[in-house]
Amino acid sequence: MLAKRIIPCLDVRDGRVVKGTRFVNIRDAGDPVERASFYNSEGADELVFLDITASVEGRRAIVDVVSKTAEVVFIPLTVGGGIDSTEFMDQLLQSGADKVSLNTAALKRPALISEGAQRFGSQCIVVAIDACRVKSNSSPGLLKWEVYTHGGRTPTGRDAVQWALEAEQSGAGEILLTSMDADGTQDGYDLDLLAAVTGAVKIPVIASGGAGKLEHMYEALTTGNAHAVLAASILHYGTFSIAEIKEYLSEKGLPVRPVEKQE
Amino acid sequence: MGGLVIVDSGSANLRSISKAAEMVSLEPVISNDPKVIERAEAIIFPGVGYFDHAVEAINRDNLADSLRAAIAKNIPFLGICLGMQLLLTESEESKDETATAKGLDAISGRVKLFPDTLHVPHVGWNQVRPLLNHPLFNALDDGTYFYFTHSYYAQPDRKDNTLALTDYGFSFTSAVISGNIMGVQFHPEKSGPAGLRLLSNFGKIIADQI
Questions:
Q1: Would you call B122 a catalytic residue per the annotation?
Q2: B46 three-state secondary structure
Q3: How far is CA A55 from its chain centroid?
Q4: Residue A2: left (phi > 0), alpha (psi -120 to 50), or beta?
Q5: Which of A14, A197, B118, B126 is most buried, by the most CB atoms less than 10 A from its CB?
């Protein structure tokens, strides 16, 4: 059985992790390599680095972070944030990233998805979608979730489900779907949004935004039909460990990769 | 001494596979030089991306003949992902009908696209069930999870070329075998402790041969 994946997401700025309070046991909680190793040993199925750096120096820092992480962590590694060219994708993939996550630049120029997929294969290309529910619009058949760019600051007028379909057709291998309404609330994922997107595309969808309880993850993976859940706060602040999440999902009958002892 | 060579066909995450091999005390050399590959005592042949591109790359760099020679010598050989698929005769992914777009044909069979009733690509951790008690899967339980990411799967003509199966809508061949020539559809270099164990097992197979 294909396992449901638990994917910690680390926000990185200028080469340092910027979130999290639970890391008393590791030497330097701001060191992305240490944090990646920690989650790897805890049983993470993949890792995502989201680079929130704006500067050129920071760009070099993320390449260095990826390179060092790939020397010690042997699970898939995705890098997102500010990726706007196949050259930068190549640099990150050569450094040891397995996938790149495209967002703002892909909306500006959707051909970036197909260029990346043709050069590196669809398995390398994740399209991240930040979607916000359109509240004033009650007419059926019209825009329900609007896509935002620039870290959720800029509305695009694009429909999230349509954009997911276009991303898939352009060669995306996975969709990383964040509900901006749910993000940070810990009240649960936007299951309607998830179900709408997973019902429309055939590629795997990673659910993001809103996890506060274990059942939220279960709902995202069942009702929402997500292939994987991305988790940030719930892990960084120590609400649950990956082992606890996996044990819970396993007891509820979902296939998960057991947490292994590191050799 | 030619040692262990990781073949650089220009399409794979060589750094990860090289670091993973070093992690289990192997000392691989990365090369795209046919002469180095001809002298190799063992080969890891990784690959991601498109079948035609990879075939084109190994032909362009004159690697195909040295790979065929290595296969003929039956030195320990591990194809990974697309590198495994290239061990077969041909692929449905290939759009090129000419003879140059064929695989290495170490294992007779065809690489096929998953049916569109499934989520394609097949991405994530799935269980691998070895059919034989083979040293490559030494100390790895039946049903151990490995990391997959692919849209095509190998279908060998002969049953005894299937080393392991994985269920994704149906049972497909997730590892192939022909003498010392082995291939895995999953990524051991991305499969955590289980993947490192498999690479370590490959190292023991090499050590037993030399």
A1: no
A2: coil
A3: 22
A4: beta
A5: A197
pLDDT digits 0-9 by tens, B89-121: 999 988 776 666 689 999 999 999 999 899 888
Within 8 A of B193 by CB-CB distance, chain A residues are 260-263
**ipTM over 0.95 threshold:** no
Q: Is B83 on the interface with A (CB under 8 A)?
A: no
* DSSP 8-state class, residue B100: G
Cβ separation B50–A204 shorter than 8 A: no
Backbone angles phi, psi at B176, to 5 degrees: -120, 160
d(CA B9, CA B114): 25
Does the beta-carbon distance from A258 to B145 stay under 8 Å? Answer: yes
pTM: 0.93
